[in-house]
Amino acid sequence: MKLSLKLKAIGRWQLAVGKNKKPIVNCQSSIIILSAFLFLIPVAVHAQQTTSQTCRNRIVNELSQTHDEFRSHIFGSRKDRDGKFKVLTGGEVSEERLGILETKGRLTSELVAPIVESYRVLRCQDVAICETMAQSIGMKGGLLDVRPLGCAQVTVSRYDECYLAGDDTSDAGMNDDAVTLAGYCNQMIEDSLRLERRVLQLAVAYDSGYRATMQFAGMIDRLTRELPRYVMEPVRDMINLLGRLHQIPCFIGQCDFPDNSGLSSTSKSSSSSSVDISI
What are the boundaries of each domain within the chain? Predict the structure, then answer.
């Protein structure tokens, strides 16, 4: 068998076998196919990275909404000029509400229970977001039941942005992305919950000091207003009464016949002494 290499005018290389000179491999076509294959590899990788980044953005948006709702329950929200409901510490919510720390006429110790309950709801919602993300990687669309530890069961929709399985659910790259996204979500909620705990400690400490100062100031103010009424007026009336005791009439016998025995004995002693002097 004789091998020959033939260069045609159109610039194609052909590998021929035997006398019939039939082409076995078209070099130009092979180069085109190889180039297309090499081009599709980064495109597929880029598409997978874009899906992972989209899933990250969805996680961040969900966590931001839950934290804005939590802050609005703690600090309250107000409607601004644009018609949006702004949280007093930043963020947006769907309605205006009065915060727990804005409650008047209560001690800070009475507000601890609703604050702790609000924080528990925040933790449950954050954990539910990560569990929803994890169960959305291998299946697209539909509803699923999520029940974090210590929380009530909720029914939520899967995150289509986090669907990474495609046609092959056993892809190693998908598994790596799933592990990365799970670690990213867990780290996000851990950091955010730690930050919220510190904010709550600062807010409760400030609220406790503020309410104690206001209560003390209120007691002093009431004391200064009520002192003349309940203390000074009775003292003044008592002094006036003591000054008028001599006006009280006497209704006993001694008032009509006073005892003059002391006066008679005194006069007798004075007369006897005068007699002695004359002698």
Answer: 3-227
